[in-house]
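Case study 2.
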Amino acid sequence: MDRYTFFMEFRGGLYISQVKEVNLRTAIVLWSESLDITEIKFMKEKGKLELQRVLQNEDPTPIDGVPNVWILHTIIKAGFVTIHAIKTADC
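Prediction:
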């Protein structure tokens, strides 16, 4: 399994977490399910569920010239969300 680090920008906050999964697509699903909304200012359960639905249909964009780094932008009712995903080596 690979480790993925996620950086989510949402309404002025930056939230960082990691998951281990076999590929980026399943890592995004696991990450979105594991979001702790008590840690995310302005996000409620409805916003988390909406984000999970939206991410099922989004393909992350690889960053040119930077291997193993992707970005996603989306809008949910609660606001604009930017997510960076990085495939991270274990130390």
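Residues 15 and 40 are 7 Å apart (CA to CA).
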